[in-house]
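call fold(seq) -> tokens
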Amino acid sequence: MKRRVLVREAARRDLAECAAFIARSNPRAAAAFLDSARRTFARLAGLPFLGAAWEPLSPSLRDFRRFRVTGFADVLVFYRPIERGVEIVRVLHGARDIEALFE
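ret:
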């Protein structure tokens, strides 16, 4: 059975922003980041509960999970398990005010 990876528009923008930031100093690393993010998404689709439950202050965000992009430990994928896969909601650097970005 094929696993689904649904990437929300905000997550697509996040990926583009992260890649652009990395590309300023290392274009090859930016390409590696995008490749690693796609592989991470596929891995999560196969094992949707692999990431840790996220426990934000807002109750409306508590069904999200988080997982690090492989090879880029500071970048977190926020996602929800869905039928036969995952919904990628945001991809954010861990140093950001993450809860504020979800509001």
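The radius of gyration is 13 Å.
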